[in-house]
Amino acid sequence: MKNYRLFTPGPIDIPEVVLRATAQKCIYHREEKFRWLLEEISDYLKKLIRCSNRVYLLTSSGTGAMEAAAVNLLSSSDRVVVAVCGKFGERWLELCKTYGFNPIVIRAEYGKSVGPEAIENVLKDGPAVIFTTLTETSTGALNDIKNFGAITRRYDSYLVVDGVAGVGADECYLDDYQIDVLVGASQKALMAPPGISFVALSKRAQEKIGKSDLPRYYFNLEAYERFLQNGQTPYTPAITILYGLKKGLQMIMKTGIKNNFIKHKKMAEYVRDRIRKMGLELLPENPSNALTVIKMPPEINSSDIIKKIKEDYGILFANGQGELKGKILRIGHMGNYNIAKLSRVINILERYLKRR
Which pTM was predicted? Predict the structure, then answer.
């Protein structure tokens, strides 16, 4: 099979320096050197998301961190609300149902963000645990998490956010936004290979976890807390991926956290300006800086375009998911990209569309 360059919304094109970091020799996860690695990564993440409490690193995909958030925070008597605006909001719904909950569902049309007023209307009927997404990767929509947090706290409720695609590309700060649980993963704007996820907690969320009555084993955050006291994880971690994540986070710190977000905003604006000039329409009303999602004209199937550009140019864009497959084209621009790289791939996309 031919090699190709990823312009998908995760995994992303990983910097060579990060790949080299993953080639380091393994260390033993029960000795001091591993403690230093774990502490460095945790400190970088805390700075990036402004978390003054705990960050737990898991060897899993982002979905594993989502499950950990649900099974540790929830108790069987909790009132659960899921705010859905795409496939990953649906994943929260599936997770909660798996553990016996029948959530109240707030739905926004795909391409639209969840309205804060919809969350407030539900919470007027009583406190709840709200599950939602920061960046909905399936549609490119960005939710107003800061407003969600203020509303949730006002009604003595809890806010759980899937930040897998957004953390590092879209500003999202746990303490400042009054988020109780924020989950993320290594393979998107943090520029590392897949395999590591994290769960960050507010102090009040950590207190609630101590009262949870749901079953859990591998994702038991109380076990992670006990081992963290000794600079360890309860189970064998993906050590080489942790080295890559450390390097990706160091690159962000070197750029500067604020400058990193400015860079992502500029890349997103560049791509969207080019797409509009091509006469194409964007799907999301309030787009994330992590990716651009393009509506395809009715006569064009995005599956054909993606396949052809991959074969001819070694560039891979992402298709739509579920009912959006063939109808949209998704271009990832989080992490290891710049305007020069993006200009080249947009030129290729434009030339291909003109030939049709």
Answer: 0.97
